[in-house]
Amino acid sequence: MVELRRLRYFVAVAEESSFSRAARRLHMAQPPLSNQIKQLEEELGVRLFERSSRGVHTTDAGELLLEEARRVFALVEGTVNMVQRVGHGEVGRLTLGFVPSASDELLPPILSSFGERYPDVDLFLREMRPDLIVQRLHEGQIDAGFLYLPLDDASLDVECVSREPLVLALPAKHSLSSEEQVDLASLADEPFILPARYRRMPGLYGQVTEACRQAGFTPNAVQKDVWLMQTIVGLVAGGIGVALVPASVQNLRRKGVVYKTVPGLSPSVELGVVWRSDDRGAVLRSFLQVARDTPQKGTGDPSKTA
Question: What is the pTM of this model?
């Protein structure tokens, strides 16, 4: 086997047509360089250079070896570059699960930033319920997920990437729709549309019911276990009831719904990214860093009609 080190010495001598110039280029003394070339010729059993008073010149065998050596080094350089890019999380694939409302405001800037920084990573997006996100993570079918917190699972790492207030979604014809803000306690007798509740995952349901508890009542659920924000807003527009929703839901712009701030509302909604604790994938690390670095926009004025 020919050592790459000796091939590199050979290329330097062939390109410089001089042992002394090649030695300076390689930052080494000339005698060791001459000895390495001699050993290479002995290994191959052919003369690679013709030596004369005017310098050294490659033989026919040397010319062929020079051409092939350059090709070998180009291949090695390309392989090293690809290995480094993979190791740095610049090349590969990533599968993400997310609750639909994450696409209202949180996900778009993250995906845009990630695509700009890592154009050679293939992203696969899967919209799914939060319980399925956890299940698919455990099964290894997705690499990370976005869902409402809190989440208690010792085998998963969780990091909050967005916080936003809850706002009140009212039918446009509601008697309180003209008010600038609405006291939550005044809605104690109103029919509520509640988000879905998942086992061991209080999530958004937990935040909504806690807000009502702090206001002194238990919400009268006329519709519950509604997991899509679009559906909740649609039911509000249809006059079925009222709902507390994340402020980013205002981006849905649904006709027949108005959003109102609720003074003194302490719970805030947290959207987090979650991944397997034992996942050391470089592409995942790159994505998580982008998620941390991407600033989130404000939710705007909640007292607007959608």
Answer: 0.69
